[in-house]
Amino acid sequence: MRYLSDVLKEEYGEKIYKLSLSSGCTCPNRDGTVGTGGCTFCSEGGSGDFAAAFAPIPQQIREAQARIRQKTDARRFIAYFQSFTNTYGDVDRLKRLYEETIRREDVVALSIGTRPDCLGDEVMEMLFSLNKEKPVWVELGLQTAHDDTAKRVNRGYDLGCFEAAYARLKAAGLTVILHLIFGLPGESREDMLDSVRYIAALKPQADGVKLQMLHVLKGTELARQYEEKPFPLLSMEEYTDLIAESVRILPEDMVIHRMTGDGPRKLLIAPLWTTDKKRVLNTLRRKLANTVPNREKEDRRP
Length: 302
Ligand code: SF4
Fold this sequence. Notes:
- This protein has 302 residues and is α/β, with parallel strands linked by helices.
- Helix content is 41%, strand content 17%.
- The chain contains 10 helices and 10 strands.
- The strands form 2 sheets. The protein has an 8-stranded parallel β-sheet with strand order 1-9-7-6-5-4-3-2.
- The chain starts with a strand and ends with a helix.
- The structure holds iron/sulfur cluster.
- Iron/sulfur cluster binds next to loops.
């Protein structure tokens, strides 16, 4: 297992910070093109509640950098377009926006969150050409490898759609990062680990993974369902056990981009233990310390 912060430090010789930016896109799963209402867990901010409001890129970057530099001496950044579907919309406009961003000296890479059903030919050409200038990471919110769960949370595409998009992205040489959510309604521990095993077995291998606990956020369909009929959520012990087990399952050279989620506190309904980040990280550190040596032992077997 490799942590993103270590990988970036190794590659760039300094700590690299993320700028949360907005591309001004919406999402086809919210505007009626694919579905309405969006994924049941998705907040009004399009699963990117820390992103800046849409504004000209130089202004967004200036403001995001100023916030980071209040606490650090950050020099170089990854431009992260997380909220909504950042390849959905007028491709010429998006191309101009991403070119303007990637060509800045202080930006080392572009990270674009999107859906597998929003990667048509024109978009692929744009990503391919941007990737020639600097690394482009494409982040896909897979969340689960189970189509029945995907239907339950209204994800709006099936595994076949994901697999076709994944193959095209990898064939084009892009860096692909996959997101999984643990604790989706109706999923057992084994279902969640099946999704991890699915990612671990993908060929060619995924470049990175983001693992996150399900957050029930105010104003979402999930919150309405939870209030109507509360469903079980993972405890901190269960979640951290799952992370440790995932680390054992995933290929050793896969980069872990995230193991905890930063749900916006003002929107969070449950589970409230996720707000105690220090406790979660300490528990994780303890469990991972026991996990990695076991794995090394296994790997040395003939
Ligand atoms: S695809 Fe992303 S932005 Fe769209 S509804 Fe789902 S989580 Fe929200």
